[in-house]
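INTERNAL AUDIT FORM
Audit reference: QA-55
Scope: verify that the stored structure record matches its stored sequence.
Auditor: D.O.
Record contents follow.
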Amino acid sequence: MPSSKPPSSPNPGQPTPPEAPELIWLRPERTGRGPKPAHSRTSIAAAAVRIADAEGLDAVSMRRVAAALGAGTMSLYNYVPKKEHLLDLMLDEAVAEYEFTAPTGDCRADLVRLGRQQLDLCRRHPWLPALVIARPGIGPNALRYTDHYLAVTAPSGLSGGARMEAMALFNGFICQYAQYEQTAVAGAKWQAELVGYLTQAAMSGDYPNLAAAFATPGPPADPATTFDRSLDRVITAMLTPTP
């Protein structure tokens, strides 16, 4: 229940302490005073990534990370005040694995190279696609990725704003494709039932356009070529100027 005492007012002439920034990237990792910290944001994020890789994102907690580092749970809050901050650090830790090469001037070829690398990254860290879709990556490594992407797409002639919009399309497609792959691997029975269900639906006569699509021979269903073919379509859409 609320207190019956009136709220205290600050002393006249005393400045109001500023609120701590919400973004962890605006918080200094250390003040520079006192002994060297026992841990760092990088070591904490790396431990959390290892847990997520092995058991999934739901297994990540400050308690689990502290145990992995041999630290007290409460002590980690001095480095990472909130669980959301830990997720941001994990995302940026994973993005650090990109190996950027100098742009060749061929937007399409460079984007294909970047897209394949991103899919490999999502395969190594199955929890990453959902996190990328849910949270904006704005840490130092994510900004390096964005800067590289903008350099790669500079020859397209599109404005910076248009290229930033296209980046969301690019990243979203790859993350959703990675999630689809995870479903296909984990649910072979579900996949077989899905094919059977769609076949029955096409044969019912209720969905003539679906039946026509099923009746037309499609391209090979090899996962690697399917990804490259779909990525090529996305890149074409990205590089096409809009009125």
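Auditor finding: record pair retrieved intact. DSSP finds eleven helices and no strands in the chain.
Action required: none
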